[in-house]
Amino acid sequence: MLAENYKEMLNGKSVIRELFTYATERGKEIGYENVFDYSLGNPSVIPPKEFTQAMIRLLQEQDPMVLHGYSPTLGNPTFREAVAASLERRFGIPYTASDIFPTTGAAGAIAHAVRAVTVPGDEIITFAPYFPEYAPYINLTGAVLKIVPPRVEDFQINFEAFQEILNEKTMAVLINTPNNPSGIVYSTETIRRLASILTEKSKEYGHDIYVISDEPYREIVFEGADAPCVSAFYDNTLVCYSYSKSLSLPGERIGYVAVNPACKDAETIVQMCGQISRGTGHNCPPSLIQLAVAEVVDMTSDLSVYETNMNILYKELLDLGFTCVKPGGTFYIFPKALEEDARAFSEKAKKYDLMLVPGDSFGCPGYFRMAYCIDTEKVERSLVALRRFVKECYGK
Questions:
Q1: Rounded to 5 degrees, what angle do the CA atoms 338, 342, 345 make?
Q2: H/E run at residue 125
Q3: Among residues 235, 263, 294, which one ends one of the domains?
Q4: Bridge partners of 124?
Q5: Considering only CA atoms, which of 340, 369, 364, 376 is closest in space to residue 354?
Q6: Residue 272 pLDDT
Q7: pTM, whole model, 2 decimals?
Q8: Which of 39, 246, 359, 386 could form a disulfide with 367 if both were Cys (CB 3.0 to 4.6 A apart)?
Q9: Using CA atoms, how far apart are residues 349 and 339, in angstroms rounded to an integer?
Q10: pLDDT in tens, 278-287
Q11: Pairing label, strands 210-214, 332-333
């Protein structure tokens, strides 16, 4: 018999991926340069040349048995040490290699973090709008994902609703800042208040409540944004990171869990991650990629294009009458649709070769996401289609 839960998931495939597939097929008809594909968050800038040079040098000079051999259960020591040293330099938190567990991107990191701090029946809270894949990441472990409704005026945490949902079954809170899909960054005030509530409730409930901080967009922060380090405000924080965005390496599937050294049982949690891998079939990112990234952990791709694109779109959207919270980072913007049904709105946009993702699956109906990780020239050309769409369909 087939596993019914996974079979059922076939009826609810990713809207983002479905749109991307449509855009690809449409591109075969009219040329992909004429499809204004704002569906998939796939970085549009190249990795730093230093990463490519490190790959070449390692392949030419390093012992092939080291490059292509199995990674230790807890990851390559060189990579773990490089990550820990970088985090300490940047954030002043005394991470060591024993606090770092390499994973296949942020998704792999979340998979390990969730399993480390929950058992079936426990609850994890997250805040809308949220990345839709959180639902399978968590619910398929046997834990239960609880969603706090959005505070749409600024997309900071809706604390009133949060405290209504928080209860003795809550073992972790999953946050994503800078946020996909809204592009907002949780402020210092927001993180401080969250930490205060969790500290108080941990004492009241008699067990630790962890923060799982999903941070793949940590390096994409725009001028003037208040972007605090979450771990600096709450000891029981497990950071889930990916180099997919900062180094433009989504296909290499490399990230890590970084357990705050001040976290209770920090080293045990990392050791547990190695055992969690046994149960999930995970086995660290490739040795070659770990060694190459270890040489460039303090670098990023040229991420400036994302702020340029954001400013172009934000101004145009406001000029066209959209309501929109200005992003503080990422490469997403999340305006309110011009009709109540964002799915219908996005379907109409497809006729103008605009791929816009409705906000329903992000827990925020009535809004839509644009992933503006495309060339600035294409963003500017898309404005003609956007204006025509708005004028012809909504008379603006």
A1: 65
A2: strand 123-127
A3: 294
A4: 145, 172
A5: 369
A6: 98
A7: 0.96
A8: 359
A9: 12
A10: 999 998 899 9
A11: unpaired
Give the residue-averaged pLDDT of 187-194: 98
Report the largest interatomic distance among the alpha carbons of the chain, rounded to a whole angstrom.
65
Quote the tokens at residue 362.
């992000």
List, in sequence order, the alpha helices (H) in the chain: 4-9, 15-30, 49-61, 64-67, 77-91, 105-117, 134-139, 159-165, 188-205, 266-280, 287-294, 304-319, 342-350, 376-394
Q: Of 270, 294, 318, which residue is a domain's last?
A: 294
Share of the chain above pLDDT 90, in %: 93
Output the six-digit token pair for 245: 């965005």
**What is the pLDDT at residue 207?**
97
Whether residues 320 and 286 share a domain: the answer is no
Tokens of 284: 């660290």
- The mean of the pLDDT values for the chain is 96
Instruction: Examine the domain organization and report whether 136 and 237 are in the same domain.
Output: yes
Question: Can you tell me the mean pLDDT for 181-198?
Answer: 98
Query: If you ran DSSP here, which 8-state letter would residue 360 be given?
Result: G
Rounded to 5°, angle at Cα 17 from 116 and 320: 110
- Is residue 92 classed exposed, middle or buried when 0-12, 13-18 and 19+ CB atoms within 10 A define those classes? exposed
Give residue 100's pLDDT. 98
Instruction: List all residues 6 or more positions away from 271 whose beta carbon is below 8 Å from its beta carbon.
Output: 74
Q: Which amino acid is at 76?
A: N
Q: Are residues 223 and 327 in the same domain?
A: no
